[in-house]
Automatic annotation (TrEMBL):
<dbReference type="Pfam" id="PF00106">
    <property type="entry name" value="adh_short"/>
</dbReference>
<dbReference type="InterPro" id="IPR036291">
    <property type="entry name" value="NAD(P)-bd_dom_sf"/>
</dbReference>
<dbReference type="GO" id="GO:0016491">
    <property type="term" value="F:oxidoreductase activity"/>
</dbReference>
<comment type="similarity">
    <text>Belongs to the short-chain dehydrogenases/reductases (SDR) family.</text>
</comment>
<protein>
    <recommendedName>
        <fullName>NAD(P)-binding protein</fullName>
    </recommendedName>
</protein>
<dbReference type="InterPro" id="IPR002347">
    <property type="entry name" value="SDR_fam"/>
</dbReference>
<keyword id="KW-0560">Oxidoreductase</keyword>
Length: 272
């Protein structure tokens, strides 16, 4: 069996104060091998509520993923120093806005407005944090210890929903990056497990006023978690759930194998 979260001793979940991140953090905490789970997020009261469930094995750290690069670098350094056994990071923070480009004068392009925050939260900060975590994970790899990077993309990263075009674009970018990252890490003991949620019960829609409508059709969070954990425990590289699995079957199946062919071809060409 492939290395998986069932091997992880210390798991950091960024974006753990609500929704998918919170649910996965609690599901991993409940695993029989008793891993330490570090919950990361902006809302201290939510972090405190999670710690209260098990102060021995649930730890917390404040993080704002829109912080400057130096702040994110210091965050990674601090958490590795505090938890040297850290061997898995799940990236669950996200934000979603509607943008209507058929009404271009209403699209907010002001400096660091919603477009940039969406891009930073859903994509750029994740790539930045992965880059800062990788030296630690590669060091573990050299010691024969597996580690895990778990990006959470989306079904809309495969087929976009037009009302949230920037959100879809950030998830498509994260998906593409995850494919390349997995390929580049093939010869290491650092493992990528990309999760593709469908429309799932979440607070992310509250500020858009869409929750009453979407709550009639979304997948309950408990169901999503129940369907996601087997893929994480099996060490799957890609874990599409619900409608995301249907779209993955139509548009993504076989892509990992093609990328591996490209990788091997490139390696062969460079060694001649």
């Amino acid at each position: 069996m492939s290395p998986s979260i069932s091997d992880a001793k210390c798991v950091l979940v960024i974006g753990a104060t609500s929704g998918i991140g919170r649910a996965l953090a609690l599901a991993i905490h409940a695993l029989p091998h008793n891993p330490t789970v570090i919950v990361g997020g902006r809302r201290q009261e939510r972090l405190d509520e999670l710690i209260a469930k098990d102060p021995q094995r649930i730890k917390a750290i404040r993080i704002d993923t829109t912080s400057p690069r130096d702040t994110l670098k210091a965050f990674v350094s601090d958490i590795i120093n505090a938890y040297p056994l850290l061997d898995a990071v799940i990236f669950s923070s996200g934000i979603q806005h509607q943008h209507h480009f058929n009404k271009p004068t209403e699209v907010n392009l002001d400096s660091y407005a919603v477009l940039e925050v969406e891009l930073t939260t859903n994509y750029t900060s994740i790539i930045t944090l992965i880059t800062f975590f990788l030296p630690h994970f590669l060091k573990l790899s050299e010691q024969g210890v597996p580690s895990f990077i778990v990006p959470i993309s989306s079904a809309v990263g495969i087929v976009p929903v037009p009302s949230v075009p920037n959100y879809c674009a950030t998830k498509a970018a994260l998906h593409s990056f995850s494919l390349s990252l997995d390929s580049q890490l093939k010869d290491t003991n650092v493992h990528v497990a990309e999760i593709f949620p469908p429309l799932v019960e979440s607070e992310i829609h509250d500020h858009q006023g869409l929750t009453p409508m979407l709550s009639k059709i979304w997948m309950p969070l408990s169901e999503f978690t129940e369907k996601t954990m087997p893929g994480l425990l099996a060490g799957d590289v890609q874990i599409p759930i619900g409608m995301a699995a249907v779209l993955w079957e139509q548009f993504e199946k076989g892509k990992l194998e093609r990328i591996e062919e490209f990788r091997k071809h490139t390696q062969a060409s460079t060694t001649k």
